[in-house]
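Below: protein 1.
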Amino acid sequence: MFGAIAVAISTTIGAGVLALPMAFYGTGPMGLIISAVIAFFLILSGGMVADLLKSEHKPVQLPALISDILGRQWKVPIYLTLIFSMYGALSAYLIGFGRQMGVLIPLPPLVASLSFFAFGTYVVFRGTRLVEKVAQPLALLMVIFLAVISLLNFANFSPEGFISEVSGTPSLGLGVIAGTMLFALFGINIIPEINYLSKGRGLEAYSISTIICLVLYIAFSFSTIGVLGAAMTDLGTEGLALHYGGFFEVVISLFTLFALLTSFLGIGLCTQHIYNYDFGMPRKVATALTTLPALLIYLASQAFGFGFLDVLSVAGELTLPVLLMLVSYAFYKASRHRTMTLPAPRLLATLTGVFYMTIFASFFMRFIG
């Protein structure tokens, strides 16, 4: 059980959490409420996946699980939904790396990001297993880092400044908070693996890991807001490094750069494997399809002024809700001829589907507005 929880946490926690302080900035208590609601619905969706897995007699991944129920014609749309969310992450990490590198050395963000892209593309193409060996220990370090930096922030916390700055700042919109938190907390795709590791207790392991991540995220976000106030940056650690300076500036920056690098390589390898193994494409083509779209999104962000938070929130609002709606639909369809553990399965499937559809629609409402 402990191993399953550790795997769930290591998969969930990534560089996306660094965008949360800015997402919460200006929201006050509403940010807490939205975060709790997101976590609640993700746990419900996790329960649906765990229920669906009970009818499987062999190891199966999320896309195959959903397509087995909805029909094989859904397999490609499901994969593409996952892939486009990964593009959002990869391009955001390019943005973040350029910004954070600029804190350490006087290097233009564009140069740093392009160098990062070239190195990352090479490693993804080589398919090195070093990333897989480093990813899980890094996740543990990420947990420790978030806890330590939160304690440091609370030691320098200014309640008056926090309240005055937040109350006087227009909210970025609940859709931005929901999308960013959904992206940062998303770990539904790992449930088949942790269900196997925990011998059928996948939902319990996923729920515990989600709550742990939520507590860490909220502590880091609100303590960072209390320290930075009006100096808040869309990459939270960038502002913290500049604020603390000296030794802390170096440590925070280096850890952030390492987190961005390993997250980029981990997601890049996962995306390349989908193209290479699942779709049968040559490695060169798979690598190009993995990293070039992310580069194009990054270049567009530089042209139109999109930041780290903007890209991650869009990824969370547009791609992941679609995938989770498909999970709800598959659960609803399966509940017609299966006995489910969750109570009132059709009602739950409908409610979760409507919730994710609301997040999906929030982006277009902001765009039209």
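Below: protein 2.
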Amino acid sequence: MGEFILQAVTAMCPIVFLVALGYALSARGWFDAKSEALTARLVTTIALPCSIFISLTKNFTSEKLVALLPDTLLPIASMVLAMAVGWIATRMLNIKRGRQGVFCTNFFISNTMFIGLPVNLALFGEEGIPAVMLYYVVNTLIFWTLGVNNIAGDTNRARESFFSPATFQKILSPSLLAFFVSIAFVLSGLSLPSGIADGLRYTGQLTTPLSLLFIGIEISHISLRHFRFEKDLAWGLVGRYVVCPLCVLVLVPFISVSPMSVKVFTMQAAMPAMTMLTIVSKQYGADSRYAAALSFVTILFGMIVIPIYMTIVNMWF
């Protein structure tokens, strides 16, 4: 177990460092409202779509897509189940208006790329990458549809119909477009010239540091003097680290997938809150400071929880 703990801490330390750096720079006055908005926009419209395209076209082939297709049912079903639990919990716990969508989305969406990828690589090596990417694809697609719709309804405006043109325009984000384009490239066997691909790769590499810096910036706006570990944060931790992975495990007897996929899907479901929760909350006018606090505490608790799940998946599967 000591080896698993060391692997988890090693994967988490750079994440905590970048969040702390964003916090320190913001506290020293490096960022104003305009630069914060620019950082969020740069990540969501430029860096993240490039990262999605490069990751999918690099790690998938048409053969891998076809072979892994049956395994897709488990992450889809587990996220839908976790979303239902999150929706019920939101209403039973009387979560504050403005953060309900973030709270519910946190139950079924996890940090599958920025933290999930390095942790799974450390645990399973290159063999686990296809399953990692499969969960990432489902996680990304559901976040930019159901998750974003939840957060968009967290504002003071009335929730728009899911099938309205305005909602469809929000859902059809640059990241989701990048997903569809990359799938088309994989299935057709097309590839970009190396120079263009390298440019997209360099741009995509901005996603992780900028997202984590932004979380630190948002956390800096939270008065630690008045910071309280309130019930909305406590139950958010339960949703992230108990409900989401359990929804994967309880469905395993009913949905047949490969042993490696079971391990990877469980670990991916047990990752901290998705960093994009904070940025998207900022863009839609939801409670981005709550989202930042949720990201922060799940990252800290992840130092303890992730090694536990590492041990569970290696002992049981």
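The first helix runs from residue 2 to 27.
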